[in-house]
Design a protein that fits this description.
The protein is globular and about 50 Å long. By secondary structure, it is an alpha/beta fold. The protein is 43% helix and 18% strand.
Length: 304
C-alpha cells in the first residue's frame, strides 16, 4: 500500500487481480488534434483550445458512456487533467467511471517531454504536481501516470529517465496515490532490445531500494523478448505491469501482447482505432465493443 494507506482497497484488488486492461484516454495538448483527426474531426472544426477540448471531451464521453465500456473488461481508465475536472451526465468523470462503470480512475500528471539528450526525452519538470495530487485526491483518483521516452540504448540516458520517474513516483506514493511509471522505449529504436534490457536493470535496482510498503506500477513498451518484466511483475511492490501500444496498429499490438505472459494492455490510440464521430451509435458501439474484446482477449489469454 502507499505510505499513508489511503488507497481504495476495492480498487486496489481490482487492479491487482482483475482480468482486463486499461483504457488510456489521456491525449492532451499536442496529441489532441491528431486524436480528433483520427476520429473524423478536422482542425477547421475548432479555432481555440477550449473548442478543441470540448470536442475531445465529447469523444471521450461517447466512449465512456457506451454500453460496450464497463468494468467487466476495462479495469481502469487514464484521464487527462481537464477530463478529470469535467462531468459526464452531470457527474464528475472519475466518480462516474467508478460508480456507473466499475472502472478505476487514473490521472496523467506529466507536462510533456523535454528535448532529446543522451538518446532519451525526460519529462519536463512537473511544477504543478502538488496541486494536481491535491485535486486528484478530491476527485478520488486511484493513481497517476507519467511518460518519458527512450529512443536508443544509452545507459546514462536511461538511468536519468528511471531516476526521474522514481523521484516523482516517490512523491506521488507519499501522497497516497499509486504511480504508473511509463518509460516508453520507442518501437523505432535502432537498438530496442538492448535499450529494454538496460531499462529493466535500472528499474530493478530502484525497486529493490523501495520501502516494502510502497506500491507502484509500470507501463512499458511490449518488449522484444517476451516475459522480460516477469520478475518485476512478481515483486510485491509492483501492483501491475501494463503495456502501451506504442504506434503499432491494434492488430499488431494485440498479436505481440498475446505472446507476453506478464503484460496486460494500456492502449490509447489502438483502442480508439476505427471510431469516428460520423458513425451511428449502433456502429460506434459495435466497433468499440469489438476493439475492447480484441484487447481484452490479448490481455487475458496468452499464447506460447
Amino acid at each position: 500500500m502507499t505510505e499513508y494507506g489511503r488507497v481504495n482497497t476495492t480498487q486496489f484488488e481490482k487492479i491487482k487481480a482483475g482480468h482486463g486492461f486499461f483504457a488510456a484516454l489521456d491525449q492532451s495538448g499536442g496529441s489532441t488534434p491528431k486524436a480528433l483527426a483520427e476520429y473524423g474531426i478536422a482542425e477547421d472544426r475548432y479555432s481555440t483550445d477550449d473548442e478543441m477540448f470540448d470536442l475531445v471531451h465529447a469523444m471521450r464521453t461517447r466512449v465512456i458512456t457506451s454500453p460496450a465500456f464497463d468494468g467487466s473488461r476495462v479495469l481502469a481508465a487514464i484521464l487527462f487533467e481537464q477530463t478529470m475536472e469535467r462531468d459526464i451526465k452531470g457527474v464528475p468523470t472519475a466518480q462516474y467511471l467508478w460508480d456507473a462503470k466499475n472502472v478505476v480512475p487514473f490521472l496523467k500528471v506529466d507536462l510533456g517531454l523535454a528535448g532529446e539528450q543522451h538518446g532519451v526525452q525526460l519529462m519536463k519538470p512537473i511544477d504543478t504536481l502538488d496541486d494536481l495530487l491535491e485535486r486528484a485526491q478530491r476527485h478520488q483518483i486511484f493513481g497517476t501516470k507519467m511518460r518519458s521516452v527512450i529512443k536508443d540504448a544509452d545507459e546514462a540516458g536511461i538511468a536519468a529517465i528511471v531516476d526521474q520517474q522514481f523521484g516523482y513516483g516517490s512523491r506521488i506514493a507519499a501522497a497516497g496515490l499509486v504511480p504508473i511509471l511509463e518509460p516508453e522505449v520507442s518501437i523505432t529504436s535502432p537498438h530496442k532490445e538492448q535499450a529494454e534490457t538496460l531499462l529493466h536493470d535500472a528499474i530493478a535496482k530502484h525497486v529493490q531500494a523501495l520501502p516494502e510498503d510502497t506500491t507502484i506500477m509500470l507501463k512499458v513498451t511490449i518488449p522484444t523478448r517476451p516475459g522480460l518484466y516477469g520478475d518485476l511483475a512478481a515483486d510485491p511492490r509492483i501492483l501491475r505491469v501494463v503495456a502501451l501500444s506504442g504506434g503499432y496498429s491494434r492488430d499488431e499490438a494485440c498479436t505481440l501482447l498475446k505472446r507476453d505472459p506478464t503484460l496486460i494492455a494500456s492502449f490509447s490510440r489502438a483502442l480508439l482505432e476505427g471510431l469516428t464521430e460520423q458513425q451511428t451509435d449502433e456502429q460506434f458501439n459495435a466497433q468499440l465493443g469489438s476493439s475492447i474484446e480484441q484487447i481484452y482477449q490479448a490481455s487475458v489469454n496468452k499464447t506460447p
